[in-house]
Amino acid sequence: GLAPVGWLIDLFKEIPLSVVLREQLRVARDEAARLDAALATCEADRVALRPVAATDLPALLAINGDPQVTQFLPYATWLSLDDGAAWLARMEALGATGTGQQLVVVRRADAAVIGTLLLFKHDAGSQRLELGYVLARAHWGQGLMREALQAVCGQLFGTLGVRRIEAEVNPANV
Length: 174
Prior knowledge:
Low-confidence stretches: none
């Protein structure tokens, strides 16, 4: 005979895989939309955050094309806009899963893109996620990323109900 949960396994065998995949896709889209909505108005005194767009790539090339900026990143220094387009495709694919969101950090005074902030490995069940960020070297030491982090963490803990945010730090990147 079947184990006590065997009937449940048999039930799931009767559900077409396409139905399961459609439901997973629906959940992912809902989660992505929830992240987008919660972060749409994420602002601090001097900076604001918004979802990345293809029009940001020239500014991001200047940032990610700096070897000092990318020294501790998990991807190579950008050499061209093609590198940026490949990166953007990966970020859009991540966003479509509902487990991540790539934001740009803009200076409010002139709307200049000065960095990025990635929210990833979002697990809705445990309400945790990880974050990573990049800031243009010209803006290091001014507290701008600190403002961005405070704003986004406030939204995540408050509006989205996230319980845990993690970030890996390389001790040499201080």
